[in-house]
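Let us practice reading a record.
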Amino acid sequence: MGYVYYGNYPLYYEVARTDMIKKIGWTYGEMEKSGVMMPVASLNVKYIRPAFYDDELTVKVAVKEFPTKKMNFEYEVFNEQGKLINTGSTTLVFVDMKTGKLINPPKEFTDKLKMYF
């Protein structure tokens, strides 16, 4: 069809999210070393217009609320012409890897986020 497969957009969100976390000076690896995992609790996707094969896309990610036991991410995907083609959001939760229970994020992580709020 020439269109990018609709199921790829959550993958684009994940790449943008992990890159954002790296840019604040943290990684998912560090999160797991601290005994915390961040599974996705919800995903929302809105398709506005298609992306085509070989398009270079820009994904913008925003966190508008300071995380508690959950962290909400919002995404905007733009094509090469700068047109908005997709929006989405994910909610991830902080889970203790040993107990499987919801917990607050590691202090080291939230300390790195504070400068952005």
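A brief commentary: The first strand starts at residue 36 and ends at 37.
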